[in-house]
């Protein structure tokens, strides 16, 4: 059996990855410290005998001995997906974010190197900052404010990419290149779907919950800034394809259908059947104006493109939120 280790297993994306890997026949060992995740997200995975979970901080040494699958199957792969990702968290827990994508990346890379395992790190469209090129291709280097309120996230993700790509290149030992990490870097664009926290502060849950409770939909700035929203089942399909492929360049995974936030607010009203008015709030500092992935690499090398449109994805997310919030 192929055994993989995943950090952030109880998070929104991490838990969907666990479910897909288990469905594909992997044995999965997962850790999470629940800083933004929840054990409820693992309800399906925990029923599976090929899954083992431990509450653990990724910044601590990885406790391989506590997991049964390490003895049985060694280690085939590592998914490093632990990291709070909401702009609200950038103000509340910035040092935890800085730690998990620096120290946590180093710990998980060490683990993968020890077992000569494949490695994939969750990077983000935020490494492009407020992009000056559009749509964003992977060879664009970005426009990031290193000292702004988003820097704890954007810059630590850039550090993670630098660390992982350095380990993949290998360090010279005399005339020879030393050990090389078998690495993949996925740059994830805005993703939404079931298991997001309704109070998470990201735009999808924020507007959905406001519409569900008949409150005005709050839009930062004029609402002309764009985002491209990818449904979670499409995203995790792309991530697992990248992990299983031999493609080793950074790869955008996201939905290239671009919407302004105002258009998105209308789609939310339509999904909920509400007619909440828009309430404009001050623009967020350093908020990117345009965000849209170029997915040529994913299409060409992984045969991947998203399948779920915004209306369908919002319907599924709404159903999940009704359950989470116990609303009919
Ligand atoms: N959702 C998106 O739109 C999006 C976009 C770009 C990148 N990403 C990246 O994808 C990954 C998952 O994001 P998500 O949206 O599922 O967020 P999430 O907050 O739902 O998941 C992150 C998980 O990591 C856990 N975690 C955080 N720090 C930890 C630590 N030190 N030790 C152990 N567990 C820890 C949290 O408890 C949580 O369960 C993150 O790396 C994030 O940066 C997400």
How would you briefly describe this protein structure?
Helix content is 37%, strand content 18%. It has helices spanning 12-23, 68-73, 87-92, 94-115, 151-169, 203-212, 232-244, 261-272, 296-302, 310-324; strands at 3-7, 27-32, 51-55, 77-80, 118-124, 172-173, 176-177, 182-188, 191-192, 217-220, 226-228, 230-231, 251-253, 258-260, 278-281. It is α/β, with parallel strands linked by helices and 328 residues long.
Structure description:
This protein has about 325 residues and is of the alpha/beta class. It has one domain: NAD(P)-binding Rossmann-like Domain (Rossmann fold). About 35% of the residues lie in helices and about 20% in strands. It contains ten helices and 15 strands. The strands form five sheets. A seven-stranded parallel β-sheet has the order 3-2-1-4-5-8-13, sandwiched between helices. β6 and β7 (about 175) form a beta hairpin. The longest helix has 22 residues, at about 95-115. The protein is globular. The model has no long low-confidence stretch (mean pLDDT about 95). The site of nicotinamide-adenine-dinucleotide has 29 residues, from α1, β2, α4 and β5.
Enumerate the spans where pLDDT stays under 50 for 5 or more consecutive residues.
Answer: none
Looking at the structure, what is the overall shape?
Answer: globular
What small molecules accompany the polymer chains?
nicotinamide-adenine-dinucleotide
Which value, in Å, is the CA radius of gyration?
19 Å
Mean pLDDT: 96
Number of strands: 15
Q: CATH homologous superfamily, by name? A: NAD(P)-binding Rossmann-like Domain
CATH architecture: 3-Layer(aba) Sandwich
CATH class: Alpha Beta
Order of helices and strands: EHEEHEHHEHEEEEHEEEHEEHEHH
